Amino acid sequence: MTSQSEGARSAFHELGMPDADELVVKSRLIRFVAEEVRRRELTQKDAGELLGLDQPNVSALMNEKLSRFSVQKLMAFVGRLGFKVSIHVEGSGVAFDVPYQEAA
């Protein structure tokens, strides 16, 4: 998750959106998934089968419609694309990773 303490403020933060941190995470995840689908040159039908989505939701994903998907769902898509997903926790002298989903 990008935080304001890292120095870079997102447009979501600049607009004062109360859920800016979540929107940053969703934006990074959805962009990654959409770019990976494009990189693999998957049709919407093939992407839908791989990700478990119908065509309207594949279209929403490819058009980066953030409101259609939760962070959890987007992390699941990353896993279905064959990537490992984990949550990194850090602060006050503590750092650890929590595996969220193993690669499919």
UniProtKB/TrEMBL annotation:
Pfam family, one: HTH_37
Keyword Nucleotide-binding attached: no
Full protein name: HigA2-like helix-turn-helix domain-containing protein
Xref: SUPFAM superfamilies: lambda repressor-like DNA-binding domains
Keyword Nucleotide-binding: no
One MF annotation (Gene Ontology) recorded for this entry: DNA binding
Domain HigA2-like helix-turn-helix as annotated: residue spans: 11-90
Keywords: Plasmid
